[in-house]
Amino acid sequence: IQPTTIKPSTSSPSCLAQLQDLSSNHFAITMVYSLSKSLALVLCTISSVSFHVAVAWTPAAEVASSRNAFIRRILIDTPCAILLTNITPTQPAQAAPPFAIMEEEMGYFPVTDERTGDTVMVPAKAKHQSTDQAIALAKYLQSSGKGGATMYGAFWCPHCSRQKELFGKEAWKYINYVECSPKGYKTQFATCMEKGVDGYPSWSFGNGKSQGGEMELMDIAKVSGFLDKRGQRSFDASLETGVPPLGGGACQ
Q1: Less Cβ crowding at N or C end of the chain, within 10 Å?
Q2: pLDDT digits (tens, 9 = 90+) for 143-168
Q3: Distance (Å, rounded) from C-alpha 21 to C-alpha 19?
Q4: How far apart, in whole angstroms, are the C-alpha atoms of residue 91 and residue 119?
Q5: pTM surpassing 0.70?
């Protein structure tokens, strides 16, 4: 999997030089276009004013019956109207945003699968630093048996992104995550359909319990059995800070 970026040729001029040449050419073309347009507009305006002054001094009956006056009106007024409604040249199309901006704004970015040539979406990595207890909880959820857990999500889901941030970048790598979107990287769409997943994120725990929507880590610790009755493990919710609430709880 490689990002779909375009690398400049080593034999071609530098990118900066190319950009400077393009900028200079664009400026020159724009100046010539603007001067030509302005000159045409001035000439057209003079012709139109002269025509209308002449008409003002002509008897009304003669003007109404003159085919030449009608033709001159069409030939002079119509181009002037077109010039007045289209003064500026068309602006060049804006380039696509860099992957870093897409990742920051949308929470995911596209890559090309070298095997198939298809474009798939990769969710952004977690940026929040994990606490020691969050890492311990994630390792517990990674284990097989009653302590295991699986999160079903989609790359475009903001609640899935927040759930990832709640764990943090160090702890998230231990979470068993299943991508449900057909366009997502390493999608397991068929598995999600088989499990009846209809919202994201959705949690399935090894003790048979399940819950839809994003969950605070304390709630995950309780539902998963991380906090056993003997009190051998503890979890302090006050230590889990820095991730603002999103509003709502799940994506459909």
Answers
A1: C
A2: 877 778 999 999 999 999 999 999 99
A3: 5
A4: 29
A5: no
